[in-house]
Amino acid sequence: MIIVMKTKADEQELDNVIKWIESAGYKAHVSKGVERTIIGAVGDERGKISLRAVETMPGVAKVMPILQPYKLASRETKEGNTVIKVGDVEIGGPKCVVIAGPCAVESQEQLMEAAFAVKEAGASMLRGGAFKPRTSPYSFQGMGEDGLKILAQAREKTGLPVVTEVMRASDVELIESYADVLQVGARNIQNFALLKALGQAKKPVLLKRGMMTTLEELLMSAEYILASGNDDVILCERGIRTFETSTRNTLDLSAIPILKRRTHLPVIVDPSHATGHSWVVPAMAKAAIAAGADGIMIEVHNKPKDALSDGPQSLYPDNFVQLVKDVDKIAIAVGRSIYHHIQSPV
Ligand code: PEP
Ligand code: MN
Description:
With 346 residues, the protein is an alpha/beta fold. It contains ten helices and 15 strands. Helix 2 packs parallel to helix 3, helix 2 packs parallel to helix 10 and helix 9 runs parallel beside helix 10.
């Protein structure tokens, strides 16, 4: 339920409304705009007083049941964009981010080489999976905690914040002790136990759209994390499964403007998993920034032909240098810019 306060409502009235909401057993999330204050009241109404009763309280302008079941993620609850700070990097602000690195951490040498290469090319953050959700149980499953240690070393050496995947609720604490952003992979988007555990985490969550999830389902999964107490969720479009076989998935670029209209959360795009072919990635990366994405996530490997996972979609460092130069220009053309840790050699 959305409770809109009157323009002239005072602090006391606001306080009374919040207290009532909480005493009725709901959670109140207050969003103060320039002109008016909006309260998002969350909680299952079954067995409780209906939130509609709050309409009778002084200072309340209107109470609206919202059609969208994702209340906290909705623009109706919060008008301004959510900007998530990761070290010096801001995601969802005027600058777009470029997250880059290999699919998986394979060794110290491999990750360091890739990390320095993406940093020099102008990346904002480093990615790399230590726990890998592979379709086949016989494929490389990731280095586990050793991989996390290597990622933490790479952060120390390059200064780039680190994004890595968490597959199980029981691993959240371990992974957040090493990483800066916790990624939920496409295959785990509706692992609700994991989402609830991430709601308790102190680090931002990068939530990837599932290959068969609608945008509403993606937002409902984000809602799980927000409702469990973590406000920092980054949404990631990474392609959905269609009848087309030329690409690994089909990149749904229209998800960007639609999500930006429905939610205040940052939206980034992963053209690597969306397309599955390194030569298709640069065009889709440019298209994503042009369409309003807050960032892109690109797989880059120092030696793609030797990669233990996702080699065919991984860019060589040289190709990534060119990609960054190109997205720099696109970002400027659409009134934004790219956050670089170091000046990119444009
Ligand atoms: C990944 O980012 O390496 C990954 C496994 O992606 P997805 O979950 O989107 O398939
Ligand atoms: Mn991958």
